[in-house]
Design brief:
single chain; 9 helices; 4-stranded antiparallel beta sheet; 4 strands; 11% strand; alpha+beta
Length: 414
């Protein structure tokens, strides 16, 4: 009597692995949908969007001119001949120093550009963090599939031992060993189910989506592992944000220089005194003798230098990060390929051959168990290497400004 165990059983169970979540009629959530949820709920992104609204409000205020001032006074005038009325009314209009309003608008526009760039940085950071957790969940679910396969193989092993025991060709020790393997596999399955729940909980907490705890999720770690392949060479958005910050500092430097120019206002007054009507006009000028904006200018220049230094350091760091991540990705991809194409098939074949030999009474159960464990370890190693490759791919994207592969299916409007 033959009992189907080994490579065919293992491959069959793992082939059913894409059905990842609890049985449900609801459509499975995709990675793009999960990222979309995160971008609509994560505080960092919401705060970045709020800063854009603040920058737009500041731009409105920067374009406004100073309000005119109207003054008036009236009262009785007492003199020897009796009482008269004295009246004085005047209006003052501050003049915009040439170029100062334009410089205020330039500062506001630079701040808006900076806020928009920082929003994109926040979006990418959140999206890539979700991808990382998605990959970790995929690895946990892949390990769960391996654990399920281990239980199935252990059950087949027990059945094979029982068949040989009934035929009188197996000892009671074989049965005990097979049952111990089954108990161990079931314990490992329970532990791995806990790992999947924890991975779902981390994802739900990151996204702010309780539905991620129970909803069907369309996780494909193999596809994620290919993320780092042929990433386009595009300037990282982090550098764009730092460049925008430098632009703000330069605009503020130009505005600070305008403080050295005097404030000018024109005015007109009308007065009535002892029956006489008096009209006058005048100009007031604030002389920047002591405060010429030296403090603001020094601060703006220092901020400009800081922004330039930070951008230069960030560019070097991102280049090193991208090159290192690309190297890790290539090495991880090769390790994945060798494990998938060479290690796993050979380990599966060894299990199948051991099954045939055991049923024929040519080898003992210990050898079968050892080879079975090696096959399962190879499957588990494949999941680990796929995860390493996927995380390296995320690192490559993180150091690049290229649009993420699923950006077209994600809402981007602030």
């Amino acid at each position: 009597m033959r009992f189907p165990m080994g490579a065919l059983v293992l491959a069959g169970i793992l082939a059913a692995a894409p059905v990842r979540a609890q049985s449900s009629d609801a459509p499975a959530l995709t990675l793009a949908q999960m990222v979309d949820l995160a971008l609509s709920r994560v505080v960092d992104v919401q705060a970045a969007r709020a800063r854009i609204a603040e920058a737009r409000a500041l731009r409105v205020g920067a374009g406004l001119r100073d309000n005119p001032t109207v003054e008036g006074a009236a009262g009785p005038r007492f003199h020897d001949g009796g009482t008269g009325l004295e009246l004085e009314v005047g209006a003052t209009l501050p003049l915009d120093v040439p170029g100062r309003r334009a410089r205020r608008l330039a500062v506001a526009a630079a701040r808006l550009t900076q806020a928009e760039a920082e929003l994109e940085v926040a979006r990418r950071e959140v999206a890539l963090a979700v991808i990382e957790e998605w990959a970790r969940l995929g690895a946990a679910q892949g390990a769960l599939d391996v654990s399920r396969a281990a239980v199935a193989l252990a059950q087949e092993l027990v059945a094979a031992v029982e068949g040989r025991e009934a035929a009188g060709t197996a000892s009671g020790l074989d049965r005990v060993m097979a049952e111990a393997e089954l108990a161990k596999a079931r314990a490992q399955l329970a532990a791995q189910q806990r790992e999947v729940v924890q991975a779902r909980a981390r994802l739900a907490r990151l996204v702010g989506a309780p539905e991620a705890l129970t909803a069907p999720l369309d996780v494909d770690l193999t596809s994620l592992a290919e993320l780092g392949d042929a990433v386009p060479e595009v300037a990282p958005v982090q550098l764009e944000a730092l460049a925008a910050r430098a632009d703000v500092a330069r605009a503020e430097t130009a505005l600070a220089r305008a403080a050295a120019l005097p404030d000018v206002a024109v005015g007109a007054w009308y007065a009535q005194e002892e029956g006489a009507h008096i009209a006058t006009a005048g100009v007031s000028v604030t002389l920047p003798v002591f405060d010429r904006g030296q403090g603001d200018l020094a601060l703006a220049r220092a901020q400009e230098a800081t922004a330039a230094a930070e951008r230069e350091a960030a560019e070097r760091r991102l280049v090193a990060t991208r090159q290192g991540a690309a190297l890790v990705f290539r090495q991880a991809a090769e390790a994945t390929r060798l494990t998938r194409d060479e290690v796993v098939p050979r380990a599966d074949r060894a299990v199948e051959m051991a099954r045939e030999a055991y049923l024929a009474g040519k080898i003992d159960l210990t050898t079968v168990i050892t080879l079975r464990r090696q096959a399962l370890e190879a499957r588990a190693a494949l999941q680990e290497r796929l995860l390493v490759q996927a995380l390296a791919g995320v690192a490559v994207w993180s150091a690049s400004g290229a649009p993420l592969p699923f950006d077209d299916s994600i809402r981007t409007d602030p």
